[in-house]
Design goal:
With 783 residues, the chain is an alpha/beta fold. It has three domains: 62-147 and 388-479 and 500-525, Rossmann fold, CATH 3.40.50.740; 152-374 and 570-575 and 585-602, 3-Layer(aba) Sandwich (Dimethylsulfoxide Reductase, domain 2); 620-755, Barwin-like endoglucanases (Beta Barrel), CATH 2.40.40. 28% of the residues lie in helices and 17% in strands. It is built from 25 helices and 32 strands. The strands form eight sheets. Strands 6-17-18-19-4-5-32 form a seven-stranded mixed beta sheet. Strands 24-28-25-27-26-31 form a six-stranded mixed β-barrel. A five-stranded parallel beta sheet has the order 10-9-8-12-13. The longest helix has 18 residues, at 89-106. Bound molecules: ligand MGD (2 copies) and molybdenum atom (MO). The site of one ligand MGD has 35 residues, from helix 15 and strand 18.
Amino acid sequence: MARKIAIEDMPLTAAHWGVYRAEVEDDKLCALHPFERDPNPSPIANGYLGVLDDALRIDAPMVRKSWLENGPGSAAHKRGHEAFVQVTWEEAETLVADELTRVRSRYSNEAIYGGSYGWSGAGRFHHAQSQLHRFLNCIGGYTKSVNTYSLAAGEVILSHFLGDPSTFIHNPPSWHSVVESGELLVAFGGMPLRNSQISSGGTGVHRARTALSEAKNNGVSFVNISPIRSDVAADLNAEWIAARPGSDVALMLAIAHELLKNNWHNRAFLDRYTTGFETFSRYLTGQSDGIVKSAAWAAEIAQVPVRTIKDLAARMAKSRTLISVSWSLTRQEKGEQPFWMATTLAAMLGQIGLPGAGIAFGYCASNSIGMERRTVKFASLAQGRNPVKSFIPVARISDMLLDPGGTFRFNGQTHRYPDIKLVYWAGGNPFHHHQDLTKLERAWKKPETIIAHEWCWNALAKRSDIVLPCTTQLERRDLMLTPRDPYIVAMEAVVPPHAQSRDDYLILSRIARRLGAEQAFTEGRSSEEWLRWLYEESQAKAATFDITLPDYEDFTAKGWHYVDPIQTGSGALAEYRKSPEAAPLKTPSRRIEICSKNIMGMGRPGILPHPAWYRPTEWLGNAVGPYDLHLISGQPADKLHSQLDHGPESRAAKKMGRTPVNLNPSDAKTLGIVDGDLLRVFNERGACLANARLDVSLMQGCVAISTGAWLDVERQADGTLICRNGNPNTLTRDQGTSELAQGPTAHSCLVGIEKFLGRTGPPKAYLPPEIERGKSGKHKKAP
Ligand SMILES: Nc1nc2c(c(=O)[nH]1)N[C@H]1C(S)=C(S)[C@@H](COP(=O)(O)OP(=O)(O)OC[C@H]3O[C@@H](n4cnc5c(=O)[nH]c(N)nc54)[C@H](O)[C@@H]3O)O[C@H]1N2
Ligand SMILES: Nc1nc2c(c(=O)[nH]1)N[C@H]1C(S)=C(S)[C@@H](COP(=O)(O)OP(=O)(O)OC[C@H]3O[C@@H](n4cnc5c(=O)[nH]c(N)nc54)[C@H](O)[C@@H]3O)O[C@H]1N2
Ligand SMILES: [Mo]
C-alpha cells in the first residue's frame, strides 16, 4: 500500500467557498481537507465527493434530438423533456460554429444573447463567463447584460448618491476597525454567517465569524433587524427586531425622524458632506406629502412597537454606530431605496468615515466584505471590445425573450429589447437564478438555439440544444488571484478531466479555430502559458503597490502566498471625510447626494429624488388569503446557489429527502401542520413541494425556502409549474425593482401553503436525461 501523504503535502485547490487540500487515490477524489491556515473552513466542499464521475456527469458533447435531426428551432417546446444524442467533439464544434455563422449572417450578432450570468468556478483564468465574452467579442460581439442578481438596485443607486459603487460596496469599515472602535452595529437584513462562507474567486481565510466574536468581546452590541433571528449569530446576543419584510425603509425613516425631532442629527456633517438634506427633511416631516414619518407611522407599517423604534433611535444617536444593510434588501421591490436611506441615516448621525462607524453594504454577504487586506488590481484576461450596443439589465431576460422590439426603461432612459435567436451560456444557471420560472420556461421556447457548457445534468443543461461538457475547477490548473483576499493560491488539477470534458478555454479555442478567430482568441497561448502570463503581469502590478510576489516557479512549488494586510481601514469613505476637497465623490455635486441631481433630472413621475418609502405591491401589509405568507428565498447554507445540490453535503441538509420549508411553530399550529409534513407552497405564478421544518427563529407570517434545489417540474392544471424538488423560483416575481435599476425582486413574494395530498410523477431532478449513444454522424446538417 502506498504511504499516506501528509495533508500539508496534498495538492491545493480553491473554490468560491475556500481553499482545500485534495486527497486523491487512483485519480479519484477521496477528501477535501481545509487549508491549514483557515480557522473557519466551510464544509460546502464536501459536496464534491462522489459527483465528479457519477451518472449526472456530462461525459460527452450532446445535442437535443429534434434540433439535431431537424435543425435550429425544431420542437423548441420539448426543451427539458427530450432525449439527447451523443456526438463527437468534431461534430459538436462544427454544429456550434455553423450555427453561430448562420445566426450572425442571417440576423446579426445582436441576435446572440451572451450575457451568461453566473458564478461558475473560482480561478482567474478559467472563468467561464469571461472566456465566453472574450470569444464572442472575437466574432463580432453579442447582446450583453449589465449589473448582478446580487444587488443590481444597489449598484445603480450607489452610482447616483455616492458614485463608484464597487469601491463603496467592497471597502466598508474593516473588521479590525469594528473590533477596535465599534460600539453599536445595527444590521438591516442581518449578517448571516452561512453566507460569509462564500467569497467570489475564493478565500484562504474565513474571517467573519472570528471578527464578530472579537467585536462582541470588545463590547460591541448588535441589533438584528430581520425576519430571521439566526441572521445574526446566536452567540452575539443581538437584539432582534422582527420587522415585516419590505418595511426597512419606513423604519429607517422613523429613526431619522426621531433624530431630527430631538435635534440629534449632525448638522455640521450634513452641511459639509451632503447635498439635499433640506428637500429630504420636508419629506420626513410631511411638509411635502402630508405624512409625518414618525415612529407611530413606521410602527404600523413594520409592525414593530413605537417604543422599540424610539429606543433604537436614541441608542444610535448616543453611540458610535455602524449601519449594515444586507444585499437581500436590494432584491425586493423598490430595492434602490434601502442603501440610499441607510446612508442618509448614517449621514445624519455624522459618523461616516470614522473607524467602526458609518455605513456598510452587506457584511457577511461575502467573506471579503470587511476583510483586512491590501487592494491590488491583479491582471485578468482581456475581454476585448463588444461592438454590439444592445443590452439588458440582467434580470430582464424573460421580458427580452418574450417581447423582442419592446421597450424598457432603465436608469433614466428608454431602450429596446433585441430579437434574440441564439442563447449561449457558460458558468451560470438561469433555471436556478431567475424568478418566475413558469414565465422563463415560456420565454425559453423563443430562441432557435440554446448552447451551454456544463459539467452536470442540471436544469439548464437539460433545457439546452447543444451541451458541451466542461471540466470542474478540480480538474484544471488555475490561479486563485482575487483582489479581495490576502491569499493567492496556485490551484492544481487534482484529478484528470472526466471522460471527454474539456475546459471552457479549450472548447472555445476549437470553435474559434473553425470561425477563423483562433489567433484573436488565444493570442497563440496555451492555458499553461496564460497562467504564467497572468501571474507575471499581476506580479508587475503588485509591485506598483509595493507588494513583492515570489517568482512563478517558487509560487507554484509552494502553492500559496500571503500578502500582509493593512490593519486600520475605516473604509473608503474615510478619505472623503478627511478631505472632501481632495477626495471628492464621483457624484454631480461631488458629495453624498441625499437628493440626487441625476434622478431629479430624469423627471419621472412616481420617482422621488431622495430616499422614500413606497408601499410594495406584494407584502404582508396587503396579504389576504390564500396567499398570506411572505416567502424568504435566501442563500443556502449547504452549497453555493445550485452548485452541488446533487452532492452529499446538500443532500444531507434536506429533510426526508426534500428541500425544507421553514415556518414558525405558531403558524404551523394555526394551519394544522406538523414538522415533516409534505407541503405545497403556491401562488398564482407556480408551486413547489417542500417538507415542513418548524423554526422558532423565523418570525410569524413568513416562510423560508433556501434557493438552490434543482428544478424538477410538472405542469399543473392551470399551466403553471410545480417543482417537486422545492425550487422557490417557481413562486417568486419577475418584476424589476423599479425603472431605475430593473433589478430582481425575489424577496417581495407572497405565498400560500397547504398539506400536499395530490400525486406527482417520480422525482427526476437527480436523473440524467435519456441519451442515445452511438448514433453520431447521422444528423442532417443545419441549414
Ligand atoms: N429566489 C431567489 N433567487 C435568487 C437569489 C435569491 O436570493 N432568491 N439570489 C440571486 C443571486 S444573489 C445570484 S448571484 C444568483 C446565482 O445564480 P448562478 O450564479 O447562475 O448560480 P450557480 O448555481 O452558482 O450557477 C453556476 C453554474 O456554473 C456551473 N459551473 C461551475 N463551474 C463551471 C465551469 O468551470 N464552467 C462552466 N461552463 N460552468 C461551470 C455550475 O454547474 C452551475 O450550473 O441567483 C439569484 N437567484
Ligand atoms: N452559503 C452560501 N453563501 C452565499 C451564497 C450561497 O449561495 N450560499 N450566495 C452568495 C451570493 S451570490 C450573495 S449575492 C450573497 C447574498 O447575501 P444576502 O443578500 O445577505 O443573502 P440572503 O440570504 O438572500 O438574505 C439575507 C437575509 O435577509 C433577510 N431578509 C429578507 N428580506 C428582508 C427584508 O425585507 N428586510 C430585512 N430586514 N431582512 C430581510 C432574510 O432573513 C435573509 O436571511 O450571499 C453569498 N453567500
Ligand atoms: Mo449573488
